[in-house]
Design a protein that fits this description.
The complex is a heterodimer of chains A (270) and B (318). Chain A has 270 residues and is mainly α. Chain A is 64% helix and 0% strand. Chain A contains eleven helices and no strands. The N and C termini of chain A lie close together (10 Å). In chain B, helix 5 packs antiparallel against helix 6 (159-187) and helix 5 (131-155) packs parallel to helix 7. Classes of the chains: A mainly alpha (270), B mainly alpha (318). Chains A and B meet through helix 2, helix 3, helix 4, helix 7 and helix 11 of A and helix 2, helix 3, helix 7, helix 11 and helix 12 of B.
């Protein structure tokens, strides 16, 4: 097992990827990893068995996306295979992660979990579209498979939300209010986004995509009979993510869980 | 099937004049289907067996879930997630098969489980306390479950159960192979890993052996009706014959001072089994029974609003 790497280590230019491209892909990989890992905690506890199975499949897909994205970065650094992926996914210091608080948020309540699923996957679909024609060929190659899976995720989220918004609007409205402080963090741009866009890593800025996302989620809310304004306005929370180098309040214990077994014996292959 | 045991057929469904005729049908390899006018004693016994199996798959998933967030690697997390999803999927299939027997609906079965009124396998009343326990479950428990379920699948007289068991047994076989691969990493790994698995083996060996249950009753109706194809003691003995030498070959010590190879009999012999721990689990008095059932019950209550939103609450949710 390699040692934990700090944030500064990421700023070194990896062979084949610019620092800006690395930051861009890691922001996506970390979001996919965190949301997949958080979804994982629901296995066996879904509200009914069919939903348990569906949500678990979504978690596995998101983790698969994370693995694919980490692999692009790891291979550019000459660290191929599972060890290279795990070095990036699990063994960085907290300040080296680039995830959004929306992805990191525990969502220990099912209403929050499904609202996060809807908000995040609506954003994720836009992000995959934005890298479909990436000048990083390894990144563009991941997109078709991810888009196929994402179609199911967004459809699942929409169908589930449509049902519960009709009959349990209060729970969903509360969950949206609870997630409002972190909902827009998924659109905090990657470090040095301008350089990544100039290189053609992606074809649209996070600011542009956020506008589309806002329109999509508001249209959904209207369709489901909830006020579109639910997701407008600034967070009143004192703790707020200002950029992707800042971790959410619950990140440290969550990360300690992720690396607990690794930490038992650094020489072990598990 | 002989002419004498051919069941009368009404509207495509089978019915029998009495238990003797029904058992002759089973003896001739007949398959019972949900719409058949099966003897009530068969319906109740087979339902109870399938409900127990379904409960065990679900509670097995809950036993394994604790360590998934801590899986040492992203691929490993995906794999253990998929494996646990299989177990939940088995529960899903089995609850549907059981519900179709018309004794209880799925909601009633789950509520009985979460209130401690119905039972599940002894091994899922224990807690996985280290990552090595997760591997012990994959290696020891999945192998025991595989042997047990394969023996049910072999001759199973209840059609829907046999059909879902085909898939379940195939997936459990895959889990067993996965458990073997994971065990090899511990057995051939660092001294820390070897010691971790030894400690897990100390915790899981006897519960795994006890999973097969006490010796079958001489007149066990589930054997007579070909739900089970082998006696509990025979399955348990085959497990011991396979796993004692395998574990010793990996330099692990079986936590049984009396285990030895009987040259005359040509087989491994273990100490007399203390069945009290298994009996305690059947009273929901196992080491982790209370936490496991309480957590599941609390979660069930917390998510009632979702089932209500989908009109599943109290509707029997087949």
């Amino acid at each position: 097992m390699a040692e934990m790497t700090d944030g500064a280590a990421l700023s070194g230019k990896p062979a084949g990827l610019s620092p800006a491209a690395t930051e861009y892909i890691l922001a996506f990989a970390d979001d996919e990893h965190m949301v997949g890992a958080r979804h994982t905690t629901w296995i066996g506890l879904g509200p009914f068995l069919e939903e348990d199975l569906a949500f678990c499949s979504i978690a596995q897909d998101e983790l698969g996306h994370a693995i694919a994205l980490y692999t692009v970065v790891a291979e550019s650094e000459g660290a191929a295979g599972e060890a290279g992926v795990d070095q990036l996914a699990l063994l960085r210091a907290p300040d080296a992660y680039r995830s959004s608080w929306l992805a990191e948020w525990p969502c220990n309540d099912w209403a929050q979990a499904v609202v996060r699923h809807w908000l995040y996957d609506t954003a994720e679909a836009l992000r995959w579209d934005a890298v479909a024609a990436s000048t990083v060929p390894q990144l563009a190659a991941i997109v078709p498979g991810a888009q196929r899976e994402e179609q199911f995720h967004t459809r699942h989220a929409a169908q589930f939300m449509a049902q519960v918004c009709t009959t349990a609007a209060a729970q969903i409205g509360t969950a949206i209010q609870e997630l409002l402080p972190v909902a827009h963090t998924v659109w905090l741009p990657p470090v040095d986004e301008a350089a990544a866009l100039a290189e053609g890593v992606a074809t649209r800025s996070f600011a542009e995509m956020e506008q589309d996302w806002q329109a999509l989620v508001e249209a959904d809310l209207s369709k489901w009979g909830l006020p579109a304004a639910l997701l407008r306005g600034q967070s009143a929370s004192e703790q707020r993510q200002t950029d992707r180098t800042v971790r959410s309040p619950g990140f440290t214990p969550f990360h300690q869980d992720l690396v607990e077994v690794f930490s038992i014996d650094p020489a072990a292959v598990w | 099937m002989t002419a004498t045991t051919m069941p009368a057929t009404v509207s495509g469904l089978n019915h029998w004049a009495g238990l003797d005729e029904f058992e002759a049908f089973i003896d001739d390899g007949g398959m019972v289907e949900p719409g058949d006018a099966m003897p009530e004693v068969y319906r109740q016994e087979v339902f109870r067996f399938i409900e127990f199996h379904a409960n065990s798959e679900l509670m097995g998933g809950l036993t394994e879930r604790d360590w998934i967030p801590k899986a040492p690697g992203l691929r490993l997390k995906q794999i253990f997630l998929a494996k646990t999803q299989d177990e939940i999927g088995h529960a899903h299939l089995l609850y549907m098969v059981a519900a179709d027997m018309g004794v209880k609906g799925r909601t009633e079965m789950l509520e009985d489980l979460f209130s401690g009124r119905s039972r599940f396998h002894n091994v899922f009343h224990y807690q996985a306390v280290t990552w090595a326990d997760q591997i012990a479950i994959a290696y020891l428990v999945d192998a025991a479950a595989f042997a047990s379920q394969r023996a049910v699948f072999a001759q199973c007289s209840y059609g829907p159960y046999k059909r879902v068991l085909k898939r379940i047994v195939a997936e459990e076989g895959f889990h067993m192979r996965h458990g073997e691969e994971m065990l090899l990493r511990m057995a051939e790994g660092t001294p820390v890993q070897h010691q971790m698995f030894q400690e897990a083996l100390n915790r899981w060996w006897w519960p795994a052996v006890q999973l097969f249950g006490p010796d079958s009753a001489p007149d066990d109706p589930l054997l007579r009706w070909k739900i089970k194809s082998e006696r509990n003691e025979d399955l348990r003995d085959a497990y011991i014959q396979k796993y004692v030498p395998l574990l010793q070959g990996y330099r692990f010590q079986i936590p049984d001072d009396g285990v030895h190879f009987n040259e005359e009999a040509g087989k491994w012999v273990v100490s007399e089994i203390d069945w009290e721990p298994l009996k305690a689990t059947m009273r929901q008095g196992g080491p982790d029974s209370k936490r496991r059932i309480t957590n599941a019950a609390n979660n069930w209550a917390d998510t009632a609003w979702v089932r209500s939103a989908f009109n599943l609450e109290g509707a029997g949710a087949p």
